[in-house]
Write a structure and sequence with these properties.
alpha/beta; Enolase-like, domain 1; TIM Barrel; 8-stranded parallel beta sheet; 4-stranded antiparallel beta sheet; 13 helices; binds magnesium ion
Length: 338
């Protein structure tokens, strides 16, 4: 198989600030994988938090050049669980890009959208939340107004003054709000916040405490009146068992786990343990967001808004109508150039 990669720079509508930093543009790679004349598209958006970078993606792709052989199904298995899983263990975004490109190819060969290959009902997609990054009160007001079409908001918290911003948003809109602290609180703050946020009608809290503080997360799970969704704690399917007493649910992202195939395994592991499942994303174009959306009928919560925060997304794929994800019916991922 022949792989071509294209490096893209896409601007964000607003700088996106969370508890541990700010991002003003998205640097990402589009993978085009050709299997006997059928081209699949994928995206590798390397998350620095998980140790990936532009350079690490380029190095991994270089080392792969003569390894992409066999049928699309065989190659997909080698990347998800075979020897390429090991070799690319610290390159989840590269695995994700290849995996979604291979699903795209398999769908195009069978002339079916990916959700149909997986026997999922496209009418069962959840609503997606729209994320409001940390910003000045005036900018937060503007973002909330601009998100008028979305019924669900996700507020980034975990920095001093975050409650003032949340109260401002609550006063401005009657929408359902979920909160993501991105590991910004200690256990005492998290317990107190879970009570306060519960009284304010917040839906759930994502990763309030650093993922290394497992005992603190266990304590919080016991005491929190709100569901705790683990994000930074959960990367691979193997993490779910170890973390199942640390939260009420898990947030799956293709760039953390390595694509659609491991994401399906994560859903299965979570369901075995009666955990809620959320499907999230990094800042990504519509390529990776659409790939994730194809499995969204399986999950309880979706936060697939990375493409909605961009100005000039170069791709078109999944849509949003009344907050609900609308899957493309074309074969494969159904992604095209804008
Ligand atoms: Mg999160």
């Amino acid at each position: 198989m022949k792989l071509e990669i294209e490096r893209l720079l896409v601007r964000l509508t607003y700088p996106f600030r969370i508890a541990r930093g700010v991002q003003t543009e998205l640097e990402t790679f589009i993978f085009s994988l050709d299997a006997d004349g059928v081209t699949g598209i994928g995206e590798a958006c390397p998350p620095p938090y998980y140790g990936e970078s532009i350079e690490s993606v380029e190095a991994a792709v270089k080392a792969l050049s003569d390894r992409l052989h066999g049928s699309p199904q065989e190659l997909k298995d080698r990347i998800a669980t075979g020897e390429l899983r090991k070799e690319l263990s610290s390159h989840a975004s590269v695995r994700a890009a290849l995996d979604m490109a291979l699903w795209d190819i398999l769908g195009k060969i069978d002339e079916k959208p990916v959700y149909e290959l997986l026997e999922l009902d496209p009418t069962k997609t959840p609503a997606t939340s729209f994320s409001i990054g940390i910003d000045s009160p005036e900018v937060v007001d503007r973002k909330v107004d601009e998100a008028a079409d979305y019924h669900l908001l996700k507020m980034k918290m975990g920095v001093p003054g975050d409650m003032v911003l949340l109260d401002r948003v609550l006063a401005r809109t009657g929408k359902t709000i979920r909160v993501d602290a991105n590991e910004g609180w200690d256990v005492e703050t998290a317990i107190e916040m879970s009570r306060v946020l519960s009284e304010k009608g917040i839906e759930f809290i994502e990763q309030p405490i650093h993922h290394d503080n497992e005992e603190d997360l266990r304590t919080l799970k016991r005491l929190s009146p709100l569901p705790i969704i683990l994000d930074e704690s959960i990367i691979d399917p193997e993490d779910v068992g170890r973390c199942s007493d640390q939260g009420h649910g898990i947030n799956i992202k293709l760039m953390k786990c390595g694509g659609i195939t491991p994401a399906l395994a994560l859903v299965e592991e979570a369901r075995k343990r009666n955990l809620k499942v959320m499907l999230g994303c990094m800042l990504e174009t519509s390529v990776a967001i659409t790939a994730a959306a194809h499995i969204s009928p399986l999950v309880d919560y979706a936060d697939l808004d990375g493409n909605l925060l961009l100005t000039g997304d170069p791709f078109v794929g999944v849509g949003v109508q009344n907050s609900k994800l609308v899957l493309p019916a074309e074969p494969g991922l159904g992604v095209t150039r804008a």
